Amino acid sequence: MNAAPPVVSAADLGVDDEERPARVLSGFPGRLVGVVALGLALLSVWQVFRPLAQGSQYYLVIFLAVALPLVYLSYRSWWGPLDRADRPSVLDWVLAGITVVVCLYPVLPIRIGDAGGGYDAFLDRQGMLAPLDVVMGGLLLVLVLEACRRTTGVILPIVCLVFLGYGYYGGLLPQDWSIAHAGLDVDQIVDALYNSGSGFYGTPLDVAASYIVLFTLYGAVLEFSGAARFFVDLSVSLFRRSHSAAGRTAVASGFLLGTVSGSGTATAVSTGAVTWPILRKAGYRPEQAGGMLAAAGVGAILSPPTLGVAAFIVAEYLDVSYVTVLGWALIPTLLYYLGILLSVEIDARRIHAEGRAPADLAEGPLPTPWWKLLGRFGYHFSSLLVIVVLLLAGVSATRAVVYATVLALLLAIPDRMLRTTSDESTSPAVADLTKTPAGQGVAETADDAIADRGSAPKAGGFSWSRKSVGQFVIEALRALSYGMRSALPVVAVCAAAGVITAMTTKTGLGAQLAALLVKAGSVLSDDPAVVLATTAVLAAIALSLLGLAVPVTASFVIGWVIIGPALLDLHVAAPAAAMFVFYFSVLSEVTPPTALAAVGAAAVTGAKAMPTMWHALRYALPAFLVPLMFVLTDSGQHLLGLGAVLDVLWVSAAACVGVAALAAATGGWLFGIGAIGPIARAIAAAAGLTLLYPNPVATGIGLGLLVLAAVAGLVERANRTSTDTP
User: Fold this and answer.
1) Three-state SS at 675
2) Pairwise CA distance, residues 476 & 35, whole Å
3) Cα separation of 285 and 354, whole Å?
């Protein structure tokens, strides 16, 4: 029997979808980074209630001046002898110091010739920068790109350089080309990046500093409070005795834990470390289990109440509240997890039919009943509910998440009081899961899967002694500091995204590329419906390919400024266009050949990466097709909850049946019939695709095809039975 794979933590793989592993700092550098990160976290909270009088851009200048140097101290340079894995090198300290000076230069009240003079004087020179302004802006550009390279790799900086090159050399293009422009000189480029609202200090960084950081702090505090452990325990307890318990547990754990991490890769790794042993015992192959974990983890980025980073940018670009975006995401989220759960049920039946699951799967100690877990630790849901209630009451998203964070901190006290010993901190549910068939422990608790993230609570009692209270406060402050440090890659990406938005805005590239995309869509036909469908498919392919190269946040920003206008020109409603771009930006996490969530899950299960990616793609298939419904017809908007209630209901019902048909086609199993062959699968796939076109006629045709698929399945089963009968 194979030995259990080693526990792989989220930190080992790079806990965020958008980051490389950070250094594990100790000594003076560790204390300095921790204290500064904590200070920046508190400044972010202070800004919610007492905004700086100089305005939001002034705050962004201060925020970037603190956050960007932390990147150089926390992340490796990968420059051979100049690099240090466990501590910053001399070069890192120098770059961090230069970054502080360059970032704070716009607000320093020191006159240097015709430059300097403070923030107001800096703004007054917009469009007429002094030579020193240009030098400082150029340095900041280099520093931002290098910080982005350290945290996410070289692809996004290269993309930024391409946009910069287009801005500078665009005047050399043949002027009869639609993408040609007059060209920008260095002063104009630096002015757009350094001294305007569309560059470094544009919407992406504003969203990062105002929303993303606060939700990241909330996630870190939720882990600290013990919520992550409770969510996994509850998932195990709910489904322990059913045939599909293993798959259901993995999916439910991914969904619940995703509310904590907000990261597809981290969620897949954390849940996989705990649920992989029971998945293996239930008969799942490593690649199959890894694909399921990856798909469930990425679904967390698409799921309320804590959507992925790009969702905040959606709200900012469309000038709507975050709760509005949550409402748009509700039905698509249900459809996504419906597709995964149906695939899980199909897998369970196929595994059972093939005899891959042991007969004693249901044996062993009963887990703690779910109602006991809810009664004892159900209060961990309260902070999530507080966010939703406050948002519905009209409280801003920033204040709502701060209040929820405070509540989560307070809830950590009863969690420690209830988990009085190490034995009690490991529930029977999780203890049963974490034993392999050979009896070898994989992870003692869910905390082991996330401990390296720095904020999981330690087992042990809590008393009101001075020592216990002091230790609790220190751990809480560490959780806040960790939350801020885990947001550093997103800050670097958002600052770099400002380069793309500034060059696109300054040159008019977005409108030109949008026109080219629409023109390509009209090649097949002049019919508006065909043009829209072709453009949507081309846009989906472009976004999927873009997401292979750059992080989700940058993918959305680029996609919105280029593909968004093309969809809007074809009279697609802004919410539908924005959510279309958002979903395909996120789904790059399960798109081969660079599906990060699948790579992380494969490391946990010991599977090969590429087959795991294809399994993840199979589980997530409905998510690739549902966004097309948003834009193909006006009825597609009903999936976002827009329109009359009856319209929303019939479109949602048709989509559910379509998702079920696709699950049957990809899984080769039709409920009530059993395994189906190639003909029935092909008909079921056609039915699913037709049902996902939100039109009454198409819905009727799709239902007819699904009935035909069932008939074909019955015929195939009868043929198999007659063949097997001697």
Assistant:
1) strand
2) 13
3) 13
Residue type, 161: L
Q: Which of 317, 244, 301 is nearest to 268 (CA)?
A: 301
Q: Which residue has the tokens 């806990």?
A: 15
Dihedral sign computed on CA atoms, order 198, 65, 219, 264? positive
CA separation (Å) from 421 to 416, 418, 535, 682?
Answer: 9, 9, 59, 55
Region of residue 321 (left: phi > 0; alpha: psi -120 to 50; beta: else): beta
The residue among 86, 73, 592 whose CA lies nearest residue 294 is: 592
pLDDT band with cut points at 50, 70 and 90 for residue 705: very high
Residue 165 burial (CB count, 10 A): 11
Q: DSSP string spanning 505-564?
A: HHHTHHHHHHHHHHHHHTSS-S-HHHHHHHHHHHHHHHHHHHHHHS-HHHHHHHHHHHHH
Taking Cα atoms as reference points, which of 428, 425, 489, 431 lies closest to residue 456?
425
Residue type, 558: I
d(CA 279, CA 436): 10
Please report, for residues 242, 414, 504, the alpha-carbon distance to residue 385 in angstroms, rounded to integers and kept in the order given: 29, 18, 39
Note the pLDDT tens digit of each residue in 164-217.
999 898 888 887 787 888 888 899 999 999 888 788 898 888 888 888 888 888
Query: Are 460 and 454 a contacting pair, CB within 8 Å?
Result: no
In tens, the pLDDT along 45-88 reads 999 999 888 888 899 999 999 999 999 999 988 887 878 878 89
Give the closest residue to 115 by CA, choosing from 134, 128, 133, 99: 133
Model confidence band, residue 7 (pLDDT cutoffs 50, 70, 90): very low
In one-letter notation, the amino acid at residue 86 is D
What is the longest distance spanned by two Cα atoms in the chain?
Answer: 99
Residue 455: both structure tokens together: 């904020």
Q: Can you tell me the distance from the alpha carbon of 579 to that of 335, in angstroms, rounded to the nearest whole number?
A: 15
Question: Nearest 5°: phi and psi at 674?
Answer: 105, -150
DSSP code string of 561-575: HHHHHHHHHTT--HH
Q: Do 589 and 265 contact (CB within 8 A), yes or no? A: yes
- The structure tokens listed for 26 are 């100790």
∠ CA 429-431-437, rounded to 5°: 110
Residue 117: other Cβ atoms inside 10 A:
17
CA distance 700 to 112: 74
In this structure, are residues 133 and 125 in contact, taking their beta carbons and an 8 Å threshold?
A: yes
In tens, the pLDDT along 650-682 reads 999 999 999 999 988 888 888 878 888 889 999
Q: Determine the angle formed by the axes of helices 186-194 and 488-507, rounding to 10 degrees.
A: 130
Which residues, including other chains, have CB under 8 Å from residue 681's CB and lie 6 or more apart?
664, 665, 668, 709
Helix, strand, coil percent values for the chain (each to nearest 5): 75, 0, 25
* Cα separation of the two ends of the chain: 37
| Token digits of residue 64 | 């970037």
Sign of CA dihedral 157, 158, 161, 163: negative
Q: 709 vs 340, 669, 682, 685, CA distance in Å?
A: 21, 11, 8, 9
